[in-house]
Amino acid sequence: MYQQLTLEGLWKNNPALVQLLGLCPLLAVTSSVINGLGLGIATTLVLIGSNATVSLIRNYVTSAIRIPVFVMIIAAFVTVIQLLMNAYTYELYLALGIFIPLIVTNCAIIGRAEAFASKNPVSTSAFDGFMMGLGFTLVLIVLGGIREVLGNGTLLHGAERLFGPFAVNWQITLFSPENPFLLAILPPGAFLGLGFLIALKNIIDKKLADKAAANAPKKVVRARVTAEN
Q1: Domain coordinates of the chain in residue numbers?
Q2: Is 173 helix (H, G, I), strand (E, B) or coil?
Q3: 3-class DSSP assignment, residue 219
Q4: How far apart are CA 108 and CA 33, in angstroms?
Q5: Percent of the chain scored above 70 by pLDDT?
Q6: What is the pTM assigned to this prediction?
Q7: On the CB side of 2, how many CA atoms lie within 13 Å of its CA?
Q8: Which residues pair with 154 in a beta bridge?
Q9: What is the helix (H) or strand (E) element at residue 72, kind and residue range?
Q10: What residues does 33 pair with on adjacent strands?
Q11: CB-based contacts of 115: which residues, under 8 Å, 6+ apart?
C-alpha cells in the first residue's frame, strides 16, 4: 500500500505533472527555488493535516455536507500555516503573497480529501497527503531551479527568507548575466518550463512502457519453461 502511494504521489499520479492541479500558484511563484520550496512545504503540511482530519471524521459527516466541511478543514489548516509563516518567515510570506491563502482552493487538496482520505484510515491518508505534497513540492523546486538559473544565473537566492540568517551565504552563482532573461522569470517561462517537464515525463513513461512490452514475451517463455520442467 505505502509503496503504491509513494509511486502515485511522486510519479504516476503527480498532482502537477499528471493531474495538472494547482497550476496557478505553481506557475506564479516558481521564479526561484526558495519560493517554490516554501509554497511546497506549506501545501504539503496542509495536505497531511487535512487528509488526516478528514479521515478521522469520515464516518460522522453525511454526503450532503462533506464538501463544505472539507473546505472548512482545509481553510483552518491554511490559516494556521499562514500565521506561522507570517510570524517566522515574514519575507517569504510577503514574497508568496496571495498564493498562500489560495491553497484553500487548490484542487489537489480537495481532490485527495474527497477521493482518498474520506475512504481510508488516518495513517494511510496522512501518508498519501505527504507523498502527494512531496511530488508537488519536487515539481515546484525543479521548475523554480530551472527558471532561476536561466533568468538570473543563481540557485538558492534568498535562502535566508526560509531558513533564517545563517543561510545568507547559501546562494550559488553559476553565471552573472548583464541583463536578466525575462522570459524565464515571467509567467510565460513558467508555462514553457512546465511543458518541458511534462514532455520529459511522457518520454520516460513511453520508454519504460516499451521496455516492459519488449520483456513481456521473455517472461512468458520463462514461465512456460518453468512449468514444463
Answers
A1: 2-228
A2: strand
A3: helix
A4: 21
A5: 94
A6: 0.91
A7: 6
A8: 173
A9: helix 66-88
A10: none
A11: none
Packing angle of the helix pair 107-115, 122-152 (nearest 10 deg): 160
106, 29 Cβ separation under 8 angstroms: no
The per-residue pLDDT for range 43-57, each reduced to its tens digit, is 999 999 999 999 999
Q: Give the integer Cα–Cα distance in Å for 93 and 95.
A: 5
Tell the residue number behind the cell numbers 512490452, with chain if given: 213
| CA dist., res. 139 & res. 25, Å (int) | 12
Spatial neighbors of 163 by CB under 8 A, at least 6 apart, are 170
Our measurement of the distance from residue 80's CA atom to the centroid of its chain's CA atoms, rounded to an integer in Å, reads 19
Q: Which residue has the cell 521496455?
A: 211
Alpha carbon distance 208, 67 (integer Å): 38
Cβ-proximal residues to 141 (8 Å cutoff; 6+ apart), any chain: 33, 36, 37, 40
Compute CA distances 129 → 11, 36, 88, 114, whole Å.
Answer: 14, 18, 24, 12
